[in-house]
Each structure stands twice: as C-alpha cells, then as structure tokens.
From TrEMBL:
Pfam families: MFS_1. It is found in: Cell membrane. It comes from Microbacterium gallinarum. The keyword Membrane applies. Residues 12-451 form the Major facilitator superfamily (MFS) profile domain. This is MFS transporter. Its main location: membrane. The lineage of its organism: Bacteria, Bacillati, Actinomycetota, Actinomycetes, Micrococcales.
C-alpha cells in the first residue's frame, strides 16, 4: 500500500507541477500562434524562427547553470525568481509593439524558464524519498505531460477567437497560484557553502550559440559572403569553442565533459541531437504549414498533432517497462525509424488537402515511434551515470535536446528552400525522416544494454 502524502508533501508536489507546467505550456502554445504573430508584426518566416529560437538560446544555455545557482542561493529562492521573471516577460510579450521587442522578451523568458524545471525536480527529490519519490515524479510527469495536450488546443482557440497576444497570458494565473503556494509551504532553502556559479561559461555559451544562430537564420537573406553573416558565425563558433575548452579546466564546470566518456551517455546524446532536432523541425513545420498552406484555422492546426500526444501518454510507460526488461537498444532503434517512416508519409500531402488520409497516418506512426523512444532514451542516458550525478546528467541531456531544436529551426529557411510552401513542406519531411533514421542507427551502433544481475553473477562465478 502506498503511503499517503502529508499536506506539506502535496503542496510541494503541486508547486513542482505548476512551475514546470508553465514552462511546458509555453513551449507548446507558441508554434500555433506563429502565423498570427508574423501577420501582425511582420517579418515572415524569419520572425517565426526567431520567436522560437530566442527562447531556446537562453533556455538551452542557462539550464546548465541552473543547478549551480540553486545550490548557491536556494531552490525556493531560484524558483521565485524564475516564476516572477517568466510572468513579467509573458506580459511583455503580450504587449509587444514590434517583432524585435517580442523576440528580446522571448529571450528573457527563456532565461527565466531555465530555472523552473530543474528547481521543480530538485524540490521533489529533496522532499520525497524511496518509493514515494518515484510516485511523486510519476505524478509530476503525468501532470506536466497534459501541457502537451492543452497547449496547442488553448493556443488555437485563443488565436482563432481572441488574440495571439492572450496566448502568452495563459500562464500568468498558474504562476500567481504557484507563488502563493510557495509562500505557504514553508520551504527552507539549503545552500551549499562551496557552491560556485560559472557565469563566464554561461555567457560564452549563450553568446556563442546566439551569434551562430543569427548567422544561420539570416544567411538565406544576406548570403554567406556578407560580413554580417560570416563574422558572427566565426566569432560565435570561437566563443562556443572557448566555452568547451573552459569546461575541461574549470573548477566547477557547468558542462562536465567527463560524462561523455561513458558510452551510453555520449551515444544517447548524439541520438538525442538527431531525434529532438527532427521533432522540433516537424512540430514547427506541420502546425505552421497547416495554417498557411492548407488553410486550417489555428485550433484545428493545434489539434492535428493530438494523436501523437495521446499515444505517448498511453504507451510510453509500457515501453519504459519493457525497455527495463529487455534493454533500451531495440526501442531506441525501432522508435526513431518508425517516426522517420511517419515523416515520409507527409509526402502524400498535396494541394487537395485531406487531413484524415494525408496527415493522420503520419501522426499515428510518429506517436507510436515517440512512445517507443522517450522513456528508453532517458533511462539509457541517466542509467549510465551514477545516481549522485543524475541531476547534471539530466540537465546536459535537456540542454542537448534544446540546442538541437534551436539549430534545426535556425536552418529552417535553408531546409525548406526559402519559404514554407508545399515543396518546402515536403523537403522538411524528408530531412525530418533522415534525422530520425540517423538517430535510430546511432542508437543501434552505440547503445549497449545493461547487463542483467544474473549475467553479472554468472560472470563473477566464471572469473572466480
């Protein structure tokens, strides 16, 4: 019989769920609103790319340093700062008079969001122990996953019947509730005396990524020979290389490179790069094309990928359990290749658009493949690292996934050939499929299933 949670434990779990829900919800509502944003503020595809990537740049870079900040200043304090920052920037985005103002606000929102998910999980792991911790994380996962369903639907309804600006105010109420609960929970901040924050590394990572992404997004408009392209690209690459070198020698690195000596960890992160880069590309292209190319209203475009989320919720835990029994390698191979096949089905989309025959089969295969992939991928990566370092291992994998999506969206104009028409949509589908298959092949070649206890015992007896 599972032990009943105390009132304080329920409150802390509610705080963790709501804080993470805010970040997840924002990530899922934005794509639906992109066409409406560019229609009002201008900039076309470039504006749409920057609305997504400005958020991902700061989120991906600063999520690595979030653990150090929480150690130095306390988890509850950091969560309050993240929530307040997220709320203020959400209001700023809703009031944005220009595309440039909105993009800057999105970058600041990403910086605030970087501190929400890690601090939420840290609250759970510091409050719950043993089986209760596993149960709490399971509830957290289930509840935050609902953001994947609610986001596109709410975003579509707001865009169609109210305004895209109100999409960014959806999270203001849960932020206010979370801050109120946090004040009542009596969470005591614990700070490590030896905690250190490597702000220089964070700055090098953020500036390096930002300059390279700027070059990739603006290149189709200005060309590779323009100094406005190749100078930021070279400088950005240099700054990011300096960041990596610094991680090798820094006393408190935000990206411990020694983690990548572990086979399943580095292989899993290479697979993550391909898979999550492809997911970001597919998520962006499908919801935008269904509005701008197929002429669907935002609500229906948001509902189009609902089968993916439903299948993920229904099958992911089962796939995780089977991967725990048989090992993650097969699932990490079959899952991405299945998603690749689903992406290729989007080639059936034509000018005579029909969701049920041209898009739904793709969404079903994508959902099946994603359900086979997510839990085994996570367990393979985190299971390869000792438990006391699982926090930083999770942060690194999360950052890799965000940066993969960041780079893919930055290269969108090159991938689709300048504009997201039917031909560009088909080109994106082929690239998505190729990246998914690459992720599956990397997993098959590099991932090793952990030895079962019986196997380890047999080896010990043979060695004796």
């Amino acid at each position: 019989m599972p032990q009943t949670m105390t009132g304080r434990e329920r409150t802390i779990l509610a705080i963790a769920v709501l804080a993470s829900f805010v970040a997840f919800l924002d990530g899922t509502v934005v794509n639906v609103a992109l066409p409406a944003i560019s229609d009002e503020l201008g900039g076309g595809l470039t504006t749409q790319q920057w609305v997504v990537d400005a958020y991902l740049i700061t989120l991906g870079a600063l999520i690595l340093v979030a653990g150090s900040v929480a150690d130095a200043y306390g988890r509850a304090f950091v969560m309050r700062i993240g929530l307040i920052g997220f709320g203020i920037t959400s209001v700023a985005i809703a009031l944005a008079p220009t595309a440039e103002f909105l993009i800057i606000s999105r970058a600041l929102q990403g910086a605030a969001g970087a501190f929400l998910v890690p601090s939420s999980l840290a609250l759970i792991t510091s409050t719950f122990r043993g089986a209760a911790q596993g149960r709490a994380i399971g509830i957290w996962t289930a509840m935050t996953t609902t953001a994947m369903i609610a986001g596109p639907i709410l975003g579509g309804l707001f865009v169609d019947f109210l305004s895209w600006r109100l999409v960014f105010l959806i999270n203001v109420v849960p932020i206010a509730i979370t801050l109120w609960l946090l004040s009542r929970a009596g969470v005591k901040d614990s700070r490590r005396a030896d905690a250190a924050i490597d702000w220089l590394s964070a700055a090098l990572c953020t500036l390096g990524l930002g300059l390279m992404v700027f070059a990739l997004i603006e290149q189709p408009r200005l060309g590779w020979t323009s100094p406005a392209i190749w100078v930021p690209l070279v400088v950005g690459a240099g700054l990011f290389a300096t960041f990596l070198v610094r991680q090798r020698f820094a006393r408190h690195p935000i990206l411990p490179l020694d983690l990548f000596r572990v086979r399943n960890f580095w292989t899993g992160n290479v697979a993550t790069t391909f898979i999550y880069g492809a997911l970001a590309l597919n998520g962006f292209v499908v919801v935008v094309y269904l509005q701008q190319g197929a002429g669907l209203p935002a609500t229906l475009a948001g509902l189009a990928s609902l089968p993916v989320t439903i299948l993920l919720i229904l099958l992911s835990s089962r796939a995780g359990a089977l991967a725990g029994k048989w090992g993650p390698r097969l699932f990490m191979t079959v899952g991405p290749i299945t998603m690749g096949a689903g992406a290729l089905l989007l080639l059936t989309v034509s000018q005579a658009f029909d969701y049920w025959w041209q898009v739904l089969p793709s969404m079903i295969l994508m959902g099946l493949g994603l359900a086979l992939t997510v839990a085994p991928l996570t367990s393979a990566i985190l299971g390869a690292i000792e438990t006391e370092r699982s926090g930083i291992a999770s942060a690194v994998n999360n950052a890799v996934a965000r940066v993969a999506g960041l780079v893919t969206i930055a290269m969108l104009a090159t991938i689709v050939g300048g504009q997201l028409d039917l031909e560009g949509f088909h080109r994106a589908a082929v690239v998505t499929a190729a990246m998914m298959v690459a992720g599956g092949l990397v997993s098959w070649a590099g991932i090793r299933n952990p030895k079962a206890p019986a196997d380890e015992g047999q080896e010990s007896r043979n060695a004796a």
